[in-house]
Amino acid sequence: MTSTAAREPATEIDRPGIAYLVAAANALVPADKGLLAIDESIPTCNKRFAALGIAETEDNRRSYRELIVTTPGLADSISGVILCDETIRENTSGGHAFATVLANRDIVPGIKVDRGTHPLAGHPGEKVTEGLDGLRERLVRYAESGARFAKWRAVFTIGPATPSRACIEANAHALARYAALCQETGLVPVVEPEVLMTGDHTAARCGEVTETVLREVFSQLHMNGVVVEAMLLKINMVLPGLDCPIQESVEDVAEATISCLRRTVPAATAGIVFLSGGQSGDLATARLDAINSAELPILPWPVGFSYGRAIQQPALSIWDGQDANAAAAQRALRQRAENNQDARRGKYTSSTVLTPT
């Protein structure tokens, strides 16, 4: 005999596998850790090597990334590392897969899965991120290689007539489809809509654009059935353009950023991690510290970091392509990671003069 007793409606969290993904997403944003991005494309990594006179070879890229993932004590401040396609398929000099080395050190391996930005047809100067073709199969392979989360980046340039509605919608839709495929595959999606710092726009203009972008992104995520409890948002801070004559204080940036996120990001979202986006390492850390300050309202989500150059650059300069410098480079890397850990606690201090570069 069928019971007529009322039953609680099913929730998104009841979907097969989603509870696991929620726990995995939460594990990426513990109280005082963050993500380290070493997912630069080959051309980008080579460009940074060239600036320092380091030979632009596959072996040097592998050696440098091995230096990073084997840094002693890195897991004390870093919860996850984002790899690129080249790195996740490579081994250390000892013959161990990079993803395995990270997992053995209690650091979650992740993977960048987009295939870069390309010109958006009919909209000069604007970009759309590509890589959806064959993504389902690639995600399965990455999961088999040890990845537990993924990242997809879209970019938006602020100008007199940009970003256009077409650019916002195209990129938001791609981000949502990517995120849905990740959750289907059992990977936590990191959704990264980046409003670029290039230009002379004001912080207020950045805030307006960031709000518009985030509203569309979360609308598309909802439409595509993405469970926000099982994803992270990687986002820019609300900043003036690099060429803007008025550069706000770290406190003003924190207030503007928090206001923007409170108006647009669902409270159920597993966490927010900031990208550095061209900020100097010290500024990125100081602004993160201000956002996590006890003087500001309690936030509904964990707020951490997912920095690349802002953590890596001192180590890369010290290493300089020389194995003899590896230990010193690792100490610098760990120090920068620990600085951002302090910023997550709202306890970062620095004697550095904090001016944009």
Describe the structure.
By secondary structure, this protein is of the alpha/beta class. The protein has a single domain (21-344), classed as TIM Barrel. It has twelve helices and ten strands. The strands form two sheets. An eight-stranded parallel β-barrel has the order 1-2-3-6-7-8-9-10, surrounded by seven helices. A two-stranded antiparallel sheet has the order 4-5. It is globular.
Care to give the gist of this entry?
The protein has 357 residues and is α/β, with parallel strands linked by helices. It has twelve helices and ten strands. The strands form two sheets. It has an eight-stranded parallel beta barrel, surrounded by seven helices.
Taken as a percent bin, the fraction of beta residues is 5-15%
From the 3D coordinates, which CATH architecture would you assign?
Answer: Alpha-Beta Barrel
- The mean pLDDT is 93
- The number of domains is 1
Q: Give the CATH H-level superfamily.
A: Aldolase class I
Strand order, biggest sheet? 1-2-3-6-7-8-9-10
Helix content: 40-55%
CATH class category label: Alpha Beta
Write the layout of secondary structure elements.
Blueprint: H1 18-27, E1 34-37, H2 42-52, H3 58-69, E2 78-83, H4 85-88, H5 98-104, E3 108-112, E4 117-119, E5 127-129, H6 135-144, E6 149-156, H7 165-185, E7 188-195, H8 203-223, E8 232-235, H9 250-264, E9 271-274, H10 281-291, E10 303-307, H11 309-319, H12 326-344
Parallel strand pairs: 1-2, 1-10, 2-3, 3-6, 6-7, 7-8, 8-9, 9-10
Antiparallel strand pairs: 4-5
Helix pairs in contact: 6-7, 7-8, 8-9, 9-10, 10-11, 10-12, 11-12
